[in-house]
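User: Round two. Same drill as before: sequence, then structure, for each protein.

Assistant: Same drill it is. First protein:
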Amino acid sequence: MSYLTRHQREANLYYALVDTLLGKMESFYESIPESMGNLLLDAAKEVRRAKRVFAFSHIDADGISALAIISLMLEREEKEFEWKNVHQINSESIVQIEEDVRKYKPNLVIFSDFGTGQMSLIEKHILSIEDVDSVIVLDHHLPTNGIAEPTQDNTPSKLIEVNPHQHGMSGSYDLSGAGTAFLLALFVSLNNVDLSELAIVGATGDLQDYYGRGFVGLNKEIVELGGSSGFLEVMRDLTFFGIHTRPLPYLLQYATDPYLPGLTGAEDACYAFFQDLDIDMRSGDEWRVWVDLESSEKQRAIQGIIQVVLEHYNDPRVAQGIIGDTIVLSQRPPKTEMRSAKEFSTLLNACGRNRRPEVGVRVCMGDPEAFTEGKTLLQQHRANLASALRRLEEEGYTEMQGMYVVNDPQTPDTIIGIVIGMAQGSMIIPTDRPVIGISTNTTDDSPLAKLSGRAHKRLVERGVNLKEVFVEVADILNEKNETLIAEAGGHPMAAGAFIQKSHLDEFLDLASSKLAKRLGR
């Protein structure tokens, strides 16, 4: 083949790829509701116009991914900017946020993965600052009042809020905080299409893929766009954390989602598991990881794992999420925690839940030193989760009307929600009622208790809405005591609240009564 012929062939392939990508990009934009697109256009103008920006975001994987997307977008636009992760926007933290903004003097402030439920605090403390020309809120949580309507007509003109709930979509399944941030980045520049991988990392961390059953809504569109661009690849495989990184025996020894009775935490049993199945754990001097296995080996191992689960739980639903869609980040280094969306999101969660979210942001932005530090935090995070689950198995939980309660003073407030979610996913706690986790081991030794709630999808379909219940109870206590007793927010299936410890029992009693009524209906 002559050079010219080869050159022409490669050129034809390139232009075909460009045409495919442009077609996919056009389809992607068409999937965005017009009302949301108009807000994103306005927000993109504010980004381009801004000279100094301060971006705030949540500490979980979704919030960390969102903040990294915004930071990379601002860096590429050559803006002066500062960023910071915040555990939550409440009456305490907003004072520090206001102080940070007044000190830095940005003319644009961006909030991601929170803000919708705290709009009154943002209006009072941030919009009133003279140097601030505009505020952008990129959120996916339900408004505090439960009314999901665009707010540009009844809020100050300097505020732009983008939230899927206000455009006929679900913030629990259709689009995450990182996904909302990605939409803004894409409206600012098409060159930000590579940030689709971080959008899906955030959505994965927020469990928006139905525990491996696949994404829907705009999340699905982002996956397809990232796939067309060469940044993402969807594969059907084992959904456990560590399939790209962990030596085979440790893949099972540290498995917590689901918890594997007789294998999780039992090193010798994990070695024996693979030996009994005649699966080599080493290749020469190197440990084999899951992605190294042949298809026949994977099939034998999966059948063995499912058998272990069914023998203990006697419930086939527990095994449903063991195999599912896994997303590979094609441009990230092989056999690292950054190669798969699930492992990447778990790494970011580990940073946030160990109170070092800034490390996760730097990992997303390509800092190799941060990645080394993040892996250390990940080891600590997995150990903390395994310890909390073992305590839960040994000490049990409390049954209340309409809900189950886990009160563990040793579990930090940053992981109590993850623990109770994993406990129900592994059937350590039944799924016929919501489960409420309580932590008094709070960030910065706060005087408030942290309460996290989880409800199975089937309960939400029956009308259970944890976010509504938590907000209603908080409003009752605040009004009754004529002072701030509790603040709440979240989603129908996953919500949280900060409560004065002296009113914790009262909060639980009210929540129990309301949930029992909803379950009764």
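Second protein:
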Amino acid sequence: MENHREKNEADLVRSLKKISGKLLSPLDLLPHNDLREKLVELVLSGVPPGLPAETAHGLQQLRDTLASEPVKDLNVVVFGGGTGLSTIVGGDSRSSSWPRNPFSGLKSLFPNTRSIVCITDDGGSTGELLKDLPLIALGDIRHVLLSSIQLSQLQELYGLTEAEATKAVDILATVFNYRFSTRPENSQQLLRDCGLVERNILPKAIQEGLEKMISHLFDDARLHNTLSRSHCLGNLLLAASIYKRIPDRYDNLRLAVEPILVRKHIYRGIASLCALLGADELAVLPCTSVPAQLSLRYTNGAQVNGEYKSGHTHRGYPIDRAFVNFCGEPDVSSSVFDLIENADIMIMAPGSLYSSLIPVFQVPGIAEAVKKNVNALKILVSNLWVQTGETDLSMVDPERKFHLSDLLKAYERNIPGGTRGLFDQVLCLSLKNVPATVLQNYAVEGKIPIYLDREKVRLQGIVPLECGMYSPSVLLEHGVIRHDPEQFSLVVRTLWATFRHVAEQAMTTTDSAVKRKSHLLTSCELPSIRYSRIREYLAGITIELQGHTGKDVDTVRKILQRLLWNHKDIPLAHLQFVKGIQCIETEEWKRNQMWDRVYSFFDPDDGFLKIRQDQFYSESDLEVAFIVALGQSLLSDYALQKKMLSLVANGTSLGKAYHLHLKPVTERNCFFNNEDLADYLALARMVQDPEDPNHYTRLINGEEGFTPPGLLFGLTYAWYLDNRFASHIEYKMAVMKVDHTDLVPEQVKMRSRRESLIVFFREVVFGH
């Protein structure tokens, strides 16, 4: 093998010298400027037609040499999560067309391909699983595991022909992607429903292994709750593979409080399932065995917790920073570090910018290990499309869409120690031969390509390489552009062939202007513990429904359970003052709506959230009403007296004065201490009486509207969680989007107040 590699290297050098030594090199006839791009184009598209015979022969010889590069023994490590990672490793295993060609991708040319997977997903079946089990997110692991199944492994382990192996993988894709929303009666029903009934298709060992795991779902009491939720069966099979190894004397509560009892079994359970299905035991590794939660901070200072929520909450501001909150001290398998140390090629897969690679490289030690391996070829694969909520706004200019340089700056800001040494070239999907009509169709769907600003990328010290890595047949048949696993593997092989022999083009490199900050580890509560506490709390409060709401008490509890689960930003300590919820019939609603249209409030006299009847008709209206009132409850019974007095001078009304008298500190029942409460009231533009620190006033000119501090708190609380919840506050916060100028001092002061208010809510209210 070594001799073959050395011979191929010599052939490559000779071919390059021969054709590039001419006055007009045949390489000049290939598109692109960078030699690597030219060679990739040659490999993917072949020799251009119409060339002189000698020229065509020289290019064909070069192409043949590149195609014969020996890569079978190379160690390849791919980082990422979900669809992007699985697609380049072996194709998107969730696609209905995948079983027709399941053995393509990196694994076909590079059998020693291993994936290190992000574990911050909390949506769909994965999110449901986290409610009950103290495990990491398993959805992306399942996805990549299927894509990692290798033909050679199935043939070696089970003696299958290629046709038999393809049929087996088709069955496995059906089983692992099968979803149910109603609890199966027993294991036999689930076996029938998922299609796992034909013993003559799957090898006996695989058939029996999967049957045992499905039986374990029903036999292990710790897994019973999972069957009552909507799930993807592949996630449950992974959970069963893990739980089979954990002694049943440890219940889920014990496992939650003693995570060391779970960690090694997570790795073993995944490895066992990999080996059973025909993938290498180390084909798929989680970046850590500790559950974690993604948190995004926007340029206006607001912060959102949870990957699912961050992907569905459109704040209208660019993302500034991404953080990962770990449910304990992050643990990384020694196998992860061994794979990185011995890697010949490391690839950062395409995927969601803030919820794919960044969470992986924020796990302590992983980014440093990648940088330490200075001999590996390191490639970042760029996303093709702008992604709503993540890359649809640029920090440099929020009015334009994302450029590739913006993506690289985001990695620089959010990866510990920056990106130097993490990757040195970025692969971009070339759209030069894509018909304009196809791009127009994508634009109608809101999909816009990420613009390659080549020179800015080079100034960041990264080589941009534009390649046609999409499937022409899929484009022709379906009008769809996506990374093609087979084409991608050819690109990587070509880049590897030139890695040691192609001189780098001259580049002007500058140090990043972005200041690198150290990343402190932040912690969060284990999801299954949080979910249990939410259920316990809701079971203990009173819910009083009056009149026709269209919902019964159990339905309202389930809505609130979903609400509190989805809004992971809400600390459960915020619920401490709420004793119950009371529906008030519309005709009995006595609140003055002169200055607002908010139909909920917290009543400190009985500790109930009072919500008007019509807010129960719509789940979204109930969500807003509940959150606004919950925010108000944090002030609880802080007020002794509130009154509005008219200001009259010489018989002329000048306006009003709002007076707020606080209870003495010793009698106050409030979420905030005296200092924090005073800070908030100052941000609400209440003026403290220098002679009586418990007396605050606010002047209101003429008929000007006024939002009392309690209501303002509730609205800002709702706005912080999702700015769509409080348009009144979003209007006030719009000044954050305006380029302020010192020529308008009042605008500067207003912006400063808004910024300070957001910081107060982020740090004091939500503890971010």
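Residues 2-31+43-65 form one domain.

User: Perfect.
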